[in-house]
Write a structure and sequence with these properties.
The structure holds two protein chains of two kinds. Helices cover 83% and strands 0% of the residues of chain A. Chain A is mostly helical. Chain A has a single domain, classed as MetI-like (MetI-like fold, Orthogonal Bundle). By secondary structure, chain B is an alpha/beta fold. Chain B is 39% helix and 25% strand. In chain B, strands 6-7-8-3-9-10 form a six-stranded mixed sheet, with helices on both faces. Chain B has a four-stranded antiparallel sheet with strand order 2-1-4-5, covered by helices on one side. In chain B, helix 3 packs across helix 4, helix 3 runs parallel beside helix 5 and helix 4 crosses helix 5. Chain B is globular, with a radius of gyration of 18 Å. Classes of the chains: A mainly alpha, B alpha/beta.
């Protein structure tokens, strides 16, 4: 136990640097995937068949390719076409695009959960499509989408470890580097797991609370 | 002010309206009665373009209603609608529901819109409930907020789609009372309803729809008191003497 604590004191500062990058990748990809996901879903519900079809296909293609392959593609293939990104930027863009598909599906489910009468009420006072979305549909859909959004955050936090495959020295990769140079696998990977839990457990508890609150609202 | 000419509408193979022709004059209160599935709600929803149709035309003050054209927004801003299930915005308070259209569609200044909104809520008997959320209000109160929301747009006409059908019986009277006051103030109203007593007392004219056609129309008291058509007689008998 003492050895564990001594080694922890030595490794933690390095691992915390990894935590910093994990948070950067997660938050960056969260923002990008949210914005892209909104774009996909607004195209999907635009009522214009060509736009809806384009959105459907974009989502299918994104969902059909493993995240790791998307990361490789952006980091290793795009430079061949003259677009060289830093590892961090590539990780954020890759995960952001990959997760935009899940975000879009989540948003779509939330929008479709809104009663059609709400849209008719908005139209009946002269609102057009954009105003109906902004003032009536999206504010209500946001509440429905919030718990699953929290789940997406948790998944994204964990999947940010895939950035290690394109040399982003986030938490998982830092752990692997320390472990392979010190052979203290147990200590290092226990710390890595605990650090992930420190970040994910608060999110998990928060999602649980949001779900209960939404459940009460539905029951009322 | 509303001219409906030769309106045909079908849902898939099912024909709902088979050539409806009717006019509603300014200040007139017209009730539309008829069995469920007779097309009366569909007819109402065509007037503000919530439904499109296959033949015929609807004009309001001479301007054609085109459900798929951008101009439909202007039409809808001038045609109020009250729904059977209220359709209030659940994430906004009573007052916010009322001022939503004036502020965001008509771009009125917030202060003026809210002052008028408060007055409208008072007019429908809900002074003091401005901050209440729809879920905190009874069905009758929600429907009166919905009427205030329609009035806030200063419409030329209000369409009522079975406004009391989703209410507990003891709450019907409050809503009908508000509607009667509106009629007395000269509002043009087209009301789809099963409340025959309301039609007799308040309406100027009644249209009886069955099978997608207007079977009979006439002055309210005369037609409801002494219907000419056997189908009207049978319908009224069933509604007025359910057992």
């Amino acid at each position: 136990m003492q050895a564990f604590l001594r080694d922890s004191a030595e490794f933690l500062p390095i691992l915390l640097q990894g935590v910093g990058l994990t948070v950067a990748v997660t938050l960056g990809a969260l923002v990008l995937s949210t914005m892209l996901g909104l774009v996909w879903v607004l195209l999907r519900v635009s009522g214009v068949p060509a736009l809806a079809a384009a959105s459907r296909w974009a989502i299918n293609v994104i969902r059909g390719i493993p995240i790791i392959v998307q990361l490789f593609y952006i980091y290793f293939v795009l430079p061949d076409f003259g677009l060289a990104l830093s590892a961090l930027a590539a990780a954020i863009i890759g995960l952001g695009i990959a997760y935009s598909a899940y975000q879009a599906e989540n948003f779509r489910a939330a929008i479709e959960a809104i009663e059609h009468g709400q849209i008719e009420a908005a139209q009946s006072i002269g609102m057009g499509w954009a105003l109906t979305m902004r003032r009536v549909v999206l504010p209500q859909a946001l509440r429905v989408a919030l718990p699953p959004y929290g789940n997406v955050m948790i998944m994204l936090l964990k999947d940010s470890s895939q950035a290690s495959t394109i040399t982003v020295a986030e938490l998982a990769l830092q752990g692997k580097l320390i472990a392979s140079s010190t052979f203290k696998n147990t200590t290092v990977y226990t710390l890595v797991a605990l650090l992930y839990l420190c970040m994910s457990l608060p999110l998990i508890l928060l999602v649980g609370r949001l779900e209960r609150r939404l459940g009460r609202r539905r029951a009322a | 002010m509303i001219e409906i000419a030769g309106l045909h509408k079908k849902f898939g193979e099912h024909v709902v309206l088979r050539g409806i022709t009717a006019t509603i004059a300014r200040g007139e209160v017209v009730c539309v009665i008829g069995p469920s599935g007779s097309g009366k709600s569909t007819l109402l929803r065509c007037i503000n373009g919530l439904e499109h149709w296959h033949a015929g035309s609807v004009r309001i003050d001479g301007v054609p209603v085109l459900p798929h054209d951008r101009s439909i927004r202007t039409v809808r801003a001038a045609v109020g609608m009250v729904f059977q299930r209220f359709n209030l915005f659940p994430h906004r308070s009573a007052l916010e529901n009322v001022v939503e259209g004036p502020i965001f569609v008509k771009r009125e200044p917030r202060a003026a819109a809210e002052a008028r909104g408060r007055a409208l809520l008072a007019r429908v008997g809900l002074a003091g409930r401005e901050a209440a959320r729809p879920e905190q209000l009874s069905g009758g109160q929600q429907q009166r907020v919905a009427i205030a929301r329609a009035l806030a747009m200063q419409p030329k006409v209000i369409l009522f789609d079975e406004p009391t059908s989703a209410l507990d019986p003891e709450l019907v009277g409050d809503v009908l009372g508000v509607m009667r006051a509106l009629a007395d103030d000269g509002m043009t109203m087209l009301v789809v309803t099963h409340e025959i007593a309301f039609a007799r007392e308040v309406a100027d004219r009644v249209l009886f729809l069955d099978g997608g056609v207007i079977v009979e129309e006439g002055a309210a008291r005369q037609m409801l008191g002494a219907p000419r058509e056997p189908r009207t007689r049978e319908f009224l008998h069933r509604v007025l003497h359910p057992i």
